[in-house]
Amino acid sequence: MIRIQEHVDLLPYNTFRIAAKARYFISVNTLAELRELINHPVYQQHKHLIIGGGSNMLLTGDYDGLVIKNDLRGIETAFEDDATITLKAGAGEPWHSFVMFCVTNNYGGVENLSLIPGTIGAAPMQNIGAYGVEVKDLIKTVEAVDTSSGELRVFTNAECAFGYRESVFKRKLKGKYFISSVTLTLTKKNHVLNTSYGAIQQTLDQQHTVPSVKSISDAVIAIRQQKLPDPNVAGNAGSFFKNPTIEQTQYESLKKLYPEIPGYNSDNQQVKVPAGWLIEQCGWKGKRIGDVGVHPHQALVLVNYGKGSGENIQTLAQDILTSVKEKFAIDLQPEVNII
Q1: Active-site residue among 134, 165, 167, 180?
Q2: Into which CATH architecture does domain 235-338 fall?
Q3: Is 165 labeled as catalytic in the residue annotation?
Q4: pLDDT (tens digit, 9 = 90+) per residue, 128-140?
Q5: Fold topology of 5-70
Q6: Is 335 a catalytic residue?
Q7: Cα 59 to the chain's mean position, in Å?
C-alpha cells in the first residue's frame, strides 16, 4: 500500500535550497508502486511533478499538486562481451554514483561526466553533457512508464530525439512518461579518452598522471570542485543557461566589435558561444543582490546564498537575459526547469 504525504517541505529535495511546499508528496521505489499510484484518486485528480535529485529545477512557489520522487534504484548488467558492457540503471540512482561504479570497474565513457548532480533518469531527459561528452552517445535504450496507462515502453536512442540539452522527454512527451531505467553501453578496453576539452589535459599534466578512465574522472572532479559551488553550501542548479548557437554571419559581426569573443563551430554554418562569457561581459560575474547572485568563479551558475526565493532567482535570471540581449543581440535560454 502506497503512502501519500501532505504539505511536505521541498527544501531537502531541490539543490537551489528553495523553501516551498508540496500539497501532496510520494517517493516511488518500485514499478508496482508507480502503477498503484497512477490509479490513486490523488494522482488522477491533481497535477503532478516528477523529480529526481532536484538539481535541474527552480521552484518559484508552493506546488499545489502531487510531487513524485523517483527512487527506482539498482545497477545490473544487461549485456557484455569482450570489448563492451551494457549496464541497466534505475532512474532514481544518483548519476555520480553510477559514474563512480563505472570508474571503479574501469568501464569507459562516462568519466568526463563525473560529479554532475542529479539522477540517471534526468540524464536522457536533459541529455547531460560536459567536457566534450554527451550522454546521448552512450545511451542504448530508455525504459519509461506511460503516466496515463501505466504501460511500460522502451525507447531506442533514435526515438529519444536527443539534441543539445534536449530530448523528446522535454518536448513532445514532456510529462507523459515516467523514466524508470536507462541502459548505457561502455567500453571495457581500448577506451576512447577525451582530454581535449577544458582544463582536463592541463590538470593531468599538473598531477603528473597519464590519461585513463580514473585519472580523467579525478581531473574532472577537481576542476568542477574548484569552479562550481557545493549545493550543500550555496544553493544552485549548476549551469543555469544553455550555450547559445548563432549564425556564422552574426558571430563574425560580433567578432569585429568584440575580437576576444570565443566561439565553437557547430552544424549548418552556426557557432556556439559560451553563455558564461556573455554574462561575464555584461558585468554579472560575482554580483550579489540580497541573498541571491552570480557565482564569482562561474558566471553560468546562479546562487542562493541563504534565504533567497525562487522568485528572486527568476528575477535575476531575467535581468541577465535582458542585458545579454541588449549588448549582444543574443537570446539566452534557461537550462533549468522553472516551476
Answers
A1: 165
A2: Alpha-Beta Complex (3.90)
A3: yes
A4: 998 889 999 999 9
A5: 3.30.43
A6: yes
A7: 16
Paired with 179 in beta bridges are: 144
Cα gap 76→283, rounded to integer Å: 48
Which grid coordinates belong to 336? Answer: 533549468
Distance (Å, rounded) from C-alpha 87 to C-alpha 214?
18
Q: Kindly name the residue from 215, 217, 239, 309 that is annotated as catalytic.
A: 239
Query: Kind and range of the H or E element at 103?
Result: helix 95-104
Cell 506546488 sits on residue: 63
Predicted pLDDT of residue 83 = 96
What are the boundaries of each domain within the chain? 5-70, 75-227, 235-338
Q: What's this model's pTM, rounded to 2 decimal places?
A: 0.87
Look up 224 and say whether it is catalytic.
Answer: no
pLDDT at 58: 96
**Closest C-alpha among 212, 216, 274, 219 to residue 245:** 274
pLDDT grade for 308, boundaries at 50, 70 and 90: very high
Q: Does domain 75-227 have CATH number 3.30.465.10?
A: yes
